[in-house]
């Protein structure tokens, strides 16, 4: 429950159907009784009663009034939870009593959704668990799943897949090198996710974010105490080590040019959130993400397979690079208050809602125009035009941004659609290449 | 009117069985009452409530002063006909030997009142601290019961010696 101004609390109390008077009885036990009431906002008073004489508190005694509301939902439970607590001294008045309200608190889930309400309780919950000597627990698999943010791997699978099919179109696909490149890319991506959590925990951005969603606000494993910071750093370092080791092996086998690509990838992933550059804090998160999860991964995979450079994977990956940057862009919308508080000046923090929506439209238009232009220029196979079929999803995201910009939880389906837009568009581009290769 | 009885009166058990929400009043560190709407669960003798560690203030208050009171009084949350009301005073104990799993023994009773809890339990990985929970066990000492639900009338008082 959060503190409320007395006048506001009284205004709310007047709309509640149910009230309970509470006070401490002579025997030291609290007493609480359902009562009828009349509130006076201007006078900061509540008249309670009629009340049986034996049930009245002593004159001047501090009492509490709780006004509450739920809506039963058969087969589910209940919703529309809200309540207001008022405190103040009581005096006898007629066949009841009068309460002079001095302070108030309350919660309304329509204003503070349950998940935000729960998130605001995390610091107190952690303190309480510490006092008990307990730790929150999840299974090892779930903990790894959360800490690495495994579902976001689609961002890696798509550009790596594109690099592979472009190589196949050039008759240069090689299964072993492709798989090793994929594993290296996955490792650096998961390491990046963990690094991002470590740095956002250190700079306070994740702690300041009280509206995390499954798509935003980090994994929360550090905030919830599920993983120790030291373990997180160790896991992150191990993933980077795997990626760098595989990269060096591939470079030794396929050509030292891969070292340059790998170095750019690792540098971008660290510079994204690590000091001193902290590019995401400077509004450069989107271009870094586009570069890393577009051309860098596609070219790296192509090089691993073909053993040489080509502009083809760069060009093929531009549409998905734009779309993955838009995934970050949209997912930062619910984080913007916490990000701003932590000095993380993302584009979303810098832009007005209208500018954000215009930016999204421009980015999506750019991705689709790129697909068409590259086919028209003969750079990519005509079958990649299949990817235009995802346009309705983009339209759904555009509408969702307009309707739910201010509501993190209502925005969740929009964020999900946006991730799906990247995934399906990328898959259709890959399929377009595959059809071109086999036909 | 006052009665000595070893058990909660059947009318009160009926309220506990169907109540979606009741009001728990505890006493804070300055001696002032503070009330929390909670789902009551009961085996007929003891009232069980659960609280996430996220909302642990009430737990601290109970540990400091175990005297509590629980009201079964909201006609919207308690679908009984004819409507009646009760207030139960008692001694509370916070059980938290195992905040991770210990509360799950109450899950069948909780599920009966709030089936949606299973949906949230499946998403436990997303809100893990919500499911780190203490159990509040209230041993009733006294019941105030209003047959017609009106606090303007004297309550029938049951002194519950022997309830365990």
Would you give an account of this structure?
- The complex is a heterodimer of chains A (439) and B (164).
- In chain A, helix 5 runs parallel beside helix 10, helix 5 (154-169) runs parallel beside helix 16 (412-438) and helix 9 (257-273) runs antiparallel to helix 10 (285-306).
- The mean pLDDT of chain A is 95.
- With 439 residues, chain A is an alpha+beta fold.
- Chain A has 16 helices and nine strands.
- Chain B has a single domain (2-159), classed as Roll (Pnp Oxidase, Chain A), CATH 2.30.110.10.
- In chain B, 18% of the residues lie in helices and 35% in strands.
- Chain B has four helices and nine strands; from the N terminus they run E-H-E-E-E-E-H-E-E-H-H-E-E.
- In chain B, strands 1, 2, 3, 4, 5, 6, 7, 8 and 9 form a nine-stranded mixed beta sheet that branches.
- The radius of gyration of chain B is 16 Å and the shape is globular.
- The relative contact order of chain B is 0.25.
- Classes of the chains: A alpha+beta (439), B alpha+beta (164).
- Chains A and B meet through strand 2, strand 3, strand 6, strand 7 and helix 3 of A and strand 2, strand 3, helix 2, strand 6 and strand 7 of B.
Strand-helix topology:
The complex is a heterodimer of chains A (439) and B (164).
Chain A: E1 2-4, H1 6-13, E2 18-24, E3 30-34, E4 37-40, E5 45-48, E6 62-73, E7 77-93, E8 96-100, E9 103-108, H2 114-120, H3 122-132, H4 140-148, H5 154-169, H6 175-202, H7 205-208, H8 229-254, H9 257-273, H10 285-306, H11 312-331, H12 336-341, H13 347-350, H14 353-376, H15 391-404, H16 412-438
Antiparallel strand pairs in A: 1-9, 2-3, 2-6, 4-5, 5-8, 6-7, 7-8, 7-9
Helix pairs in contact in A: 5-6, 5-10, 5-11, 5-16, 6-8, 6-9, 6-10, 8-9, 9-10, 10-11, 11-14, 11-16, 14-15, 15-16
Chain B: E1 2-4, H1 10-18, E2 22-27, E3 33-38, E4 41-42, E5 47-52, H2 57-64, E6 67-72, E7 85-95, H3 107-113, H4 117-122, E8 133-146, E9 156-159
Parallel strand pairs in B: 1-9
Antiparallel strand pairs in B: 2-3, 2-6, 4-5, 5-8, 6-7, 7-8, 8-9
């Amino acid at each position: 429950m959060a503190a409320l101004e007395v006048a506001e609390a009284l205004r709310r109390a007047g709309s509640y159907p149910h009230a309970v008077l509470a006070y401490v009885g002579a025997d030291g036990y609290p007493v609480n009784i359902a009562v009828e009431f009349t509130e006076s906002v201007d006078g900061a008073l509540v008249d309670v009663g009629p009340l049986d004489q034996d049930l009245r508190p002593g004159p001047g005694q501090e009492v509490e009034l709780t006004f509450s509301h739920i809506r039963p939902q058969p087969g589910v439970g209940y919703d529309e939870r809200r309540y207001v607590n008022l405190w103040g001294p009581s005096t006898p008045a007629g066949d009841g009593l009068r309460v002079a309200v001095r302070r108030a608190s309350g919660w309304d889930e329509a204003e503070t959704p349950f998940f935000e309400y729960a998130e605001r309780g995390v610091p107190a919950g952690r303190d309480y668990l510490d006092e008990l000597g307990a730790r929150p627990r999840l299974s090892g698999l779930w903990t790894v799943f959360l800490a690495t943010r495994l579902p976001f791997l689609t961002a890696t699978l798509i550009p790596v897949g594109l690099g592979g099919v472009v190589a196949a179109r050039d008759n240069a696909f090689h299964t072993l090198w492709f798989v090793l490149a994929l594993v290296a890319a996955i490792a650096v991506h998961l390491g990046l996710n963990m690094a991002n959590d470590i740095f956002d925990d250190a700079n306070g951005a994740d702690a300041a974010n009280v509206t995390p969603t499954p798509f935003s606000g980090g994994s929360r494993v550090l905030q919830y105490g599920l993983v120790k910071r030291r373990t997180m750093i160790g896991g992150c370092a191990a993933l980077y080590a795997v990626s760098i080791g595989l990269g060096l092996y591939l470079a030794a086998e396929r050509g030292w040019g891969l070292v340059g690509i790998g170095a750019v990838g690792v540098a971008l992933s660290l510079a994204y959130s690590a000091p001193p550059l902290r590019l995401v804090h400077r509004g450069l998160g989107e271009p870094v993400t586009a570069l890393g999860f577009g051309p860098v991964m596609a070219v790296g995979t192509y090089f691993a397979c073909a053993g040489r450079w080509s502009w083809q994977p760069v060009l093929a990956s531009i549409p998905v690079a734009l779309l993955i940057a838009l995934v970050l862009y949209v997912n930062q919308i619910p984080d913007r208050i916490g990000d701003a508080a932590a000095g993380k000046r993302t584009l979303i923090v810098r832009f007005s809602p209208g500018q954000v929506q215009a930016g999204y439209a421009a980015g999506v238009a750019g991705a689709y125009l790129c697909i068409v232009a590259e086919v028209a220029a003969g750079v990519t196979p005509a079958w990649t035009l299949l990817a235009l079929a995802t346009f309705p999803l983009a339209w759904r995201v555009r509408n969702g941004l307009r309707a739910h910009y201010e509501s993190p939880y209502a925005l969740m389906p929009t964020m999900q659609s946006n991730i799906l837009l990247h995934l399906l568009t990328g898959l259709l581009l890959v399929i377009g290449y595959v059809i071109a290769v086999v036909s | 009117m006052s009665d000595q009885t070893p058990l909660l009166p059947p009318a009160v058990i009926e309220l506990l069985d169907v109540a979606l929400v009741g009001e728990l009043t505890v006493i804070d560190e300055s001696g002032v009452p503070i009330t929390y709407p909670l789902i009551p669960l009961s085996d007929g003798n003891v009232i069980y409530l659960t609280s996430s560690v996220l909302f642990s203030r009430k737990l601290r208050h109970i540990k400091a002063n175990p005297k509590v009171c629980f009201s079964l009084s909201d006609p919207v949350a308690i679908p009984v006909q004819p409507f009646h009301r009760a207030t139960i005073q008692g001694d509370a104990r916070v059980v938290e030997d195992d905040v991770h799993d210990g509360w799950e023994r109450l899950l069948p009773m909780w599920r009966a009142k709030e089936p949606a809890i299973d949906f949230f339990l499946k998403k436990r990985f997303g809100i893990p601290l919500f499911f780190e929970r203490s159990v509040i066990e209230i041993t009733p000492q006294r019941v105030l019961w209003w047959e017609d639900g009106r606090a303007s009338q004297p309550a029938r008082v049951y002194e519950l010696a022997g309830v365990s």
